UniProtKB/TrEMBL annotation:
MF terms (GO), sorted A to Z: ATP binding; transmembrane receptor protein kinase activity
Position of the signal peptide: none
Gene3D superfamilies (UniProt xref): Transferase(Phosphotransferase) domain 1
GO CC annotations, alphabetized: plasma membrane
Species of the source: Triticum turgidum subsp. durum
Protein's UniProt name: Protein kinase domain-containing protein
Amino acid sequence: MFNFMQVRLIGYCTESSLFLVYEFIENGNLSQHLRGTGYEPLSWVERVQIALDSARGLEYIHEHTVPVYIHRDIKSANILIDKNTRAKVADFGLTKLTEVGGGTSLQTRVVGTFGYMPPEYARYGDVSPKVDVYAFGVVLYELISAKDAIVRSTESASDSKGLVYLFEEALNAPDLKEGLKRLIDPKLGDDYPIDAILKMTHLANACTQEDPKLRPTMRSVVVALMTLSSTSEFWDMNALYENPGLVNLMSGR
């Protein structure tokens, strides 16, 4: 069970204690890049690429392994960033095997991280690949906003709101674009294509539907993000050539 969008298991040690040895990813995790100190802000194009890399890692364990694997703890802290700002899915310690095909839901003890758990898993322990799809949708919202999965306005837990809820509010606002602009990471400034933000928001909303049957597969998510990546890179090139200073610099003027 390995592809290049996953942190590679190198070996293990059984002397005195049990240890798993993974490849070293030197550039921290996505949560640190979005909210930590000492990191350069991620550009919009980098965020889309990180989303696509992570989606491919999940698609592999859902679609290309027998039996199917379910990660069960997808979150920004478990997406590692390498020196080239490419992403790898990490921490398969809670991964669960399902029956071949993975089409049915299983019941299990609830593990994972609050804020990323879908209702059917948090309430009943129902596990299917759609558990990972929901959590990935939350990560997409994080990439847009740089906010935690649970947003606290004060120290009181009663004032906490899930990131899913905040984006649902924005999606239902009379002016959708204005509602979203209040959630977009300030570190992006105005350097993003609002139409691409809208598309990623709608994709995240599809991933975080309350009914797991309404959520897309990770294969469908990968296809959507491949399209979004292409349009975002095209926007980035257009933005480059619309900047007179950069055009002059690149043309030697």
